[in-house]
Amino acid sequence: MTVPPDVHEYTQADDGCLRLHRAGYWVSLEDQEPDWSLPAGKKVSVRIPKRNLLTVESLLGLMVRPGVRVGSS
Fold first, then answer.
1. By CB distance 3.0 to 4.6 Å, which of 35, 48, 56, 70 could disulfide with 27?
2. CA-to-CA distance for 58 and 50, rounded, in angstroms?
3. Separation CA 58–CA 2 (nearest Å)
4. What is the model's pTM?
5. Would you write out the chain's pLDDT as a tens digit for each of its 73 residues?
6. 63 φψ region: left (φ > 0), alpha (ψ -120 to 50), beta (else)
């Protein structure tokens, strides 16, 4: 997430809605092995391509199994 200093400037959440007001990006770490040699609390940078912008379509693609139809009933 592109996060401003004040958390209230980029999110709104309640039981009916999660709204993000800044850009969010995703990356899969599924094929990455943990580096257990790193000390606890060590920060690690992860490169995330700008093309991986989180959109409705990309979020559905990340959450829904292939072949499952998503739509209103």
1. 48
2. 13
3. 17
4. 0.60
5. 667 788 777 788 899 988 887 788 889 888 889 899 999 989 888 899 999 998 888 888 888 766 666 565 5
6. alpha
The pLDDT score that the predictor gives to residue 1 is 65
Q: Can you tell me the distance from the alpha carbon of 18 to that of 59, in angstroms, rounded to the nearest whole number?
A: 13
Q: Check if the beta carbon of residue 54 is closer than 8 Å to that of residue 24.
A: yes
d(C-alpha 53, C-alpha 2), whole Å: 11
In 10 A of CB 47, how many CB atoms? 5
Contact 54, 27 (CB under 8 A): no
- How far apart, in whole angstroms, are the C-alpha atoms of residue 32 and residue 60? 22
